[in-house]
Amino acid sequence: MVQVRGLIFMVSTLAVAVLITSWAEAQEFLGPEACQKCHKAEIGVWEQTPHAALFSEFHKNKDARDIVRAVGDRNPKSSETCILCHYTAVIDVSGEPDPVAGPSCESCHGAASEWIEIHNDFGGQGVSAEQETPEHEAQRIDAAAEAGMIWPDMTFDATRNCYSCHGLNNDALDEETATLMLDAGHPINADFEYIEYSQGKVRHRFYPPEISVNQELTAAEKAEWYLVGQAASLVAAKEGLADLSHPDYVAAMETRIARATEALSRVNAGAAVLASPTEANARAFADAIADEDHSAAVSDLLPTQYK
User: Fold this and answer.
1) pLDDT of the residue at 259
2) Is there a contact between 229 and 159 (Cβ–Cβ < 8 Å)?
3) At what angle do helices 247-264 and 175-183 cross, to 10 degrees?
4) How many Å apart are CA 79 and CA 83, to the nearest integer?
5) What is the gyration radius of the CA atoms in the chain, in angstroms?
6) Paired residues of 199 in beta bridges
7) Which of 225, 235, 224 is CA-nearest to residue 273?
8) Around 147, how many Cα atoms within 13 Å sit in the side-chain half-sphere?
9) What's CA 297's distance to the chain center, in Å?
10) Which of 199, 182, 160 lies closest to 307, judged by CA?
11) Quick one: which of 50, 61, 68 has its CA closest to 107?
């Protein structure tokens, strides 16, 4: 895939770590305002999404308030459990997470405190993105990734992050807390699938050379991301089942495993992931099918409508 500078709601291993570690250990989130100066088009899309709307709506939802009380908290915006997935939170002066937005740029691209200066350095003071040399761009991309930024072409890590929230596959949730949430009616959405959810309202693919156009994935790209997403779903489901035995959760994860098995069995490279669904094998699978066209193999599995 081509390296790009645009934002997309996805992530890498480092970003997942930000989501699943304690607030005291996490890199700091800066909030969407840190991105909006340079990414106006992307922010404009985000502002119209359910992700953005959560900030003003989620804490008013009766079901959400019932669930937060079940885990011993009073309000979703002050619950570190809810903040894990439903908000973007900065650290306030007392060291506590302070929600400033719904899920936003950093929820998927990683907390920006360690990488934003690298990301914004195009080769020196006063040098614009248009003036950046290819050599510096390559170095900047690698350095930002090492510091925790999730670039859009990190296919496995990007899709895996979605499942940390869309399915209670978050290591910060211990079994007792997750069980309380499920007993109180927290949804799992066994049918969550990456392409269906990423290519609808949240799609923001403003990439060169058509930076003013919110571009759609090609058929080959849809197939690639679908397959990598299924590998991520399989890994997340298997990991989750090792930690949580709630019957509703087990049923949902078994549904996801069956769907992933069907998809991955259609391409030769999927065999290794099916045999041993680890992050390393799934990432190797993503690398193996990068830029390949498997649209014919999975065309009947791809969604035709998007959320």
Assistant:
1) 98
2) yes
3) 100
4) 6
5) 19
6) none
7) 235
8) 16
9) 25
10) 199
11) 50
Residue with tokens 């923001």: 204
DSSP H helical ranges for the chain: 13-20, 33-36, 40-46, 50-57, 62-70, 80-86, 105-109, 116-119, 134-146, 155-165, 175-183, 194-198, 219-243, 247-264, 270-275, 279-289, 295-298
* Six-digit token string for 69: 């009380």
SS3 89: strand
Q: Which of 8-17, 140-149, 167-176 has the highest mean pLDDT?
A: 140-149
Q: How many CB atoms neighbour CB 275 within 10 A?
A: 9
Q: How many CB atoms lie within 10 A of CB 190?
A: 17
Phi, psi dihedral angles at 101 (to 5 degrees):
-165, 170
The residue type of 276 is S
The amino acid occupying position 10 is: M
Which pLDDT score, from 0 to 100, does residue 26 have? Answer: 54
Q: Supply 223's token pair.
A: 């197939």
- Tally of residues, the chain: 307
Mean pLDDT computed over 37-53 = 97
Whether 5 has a pLDDT exceeding 80, the answer reads no
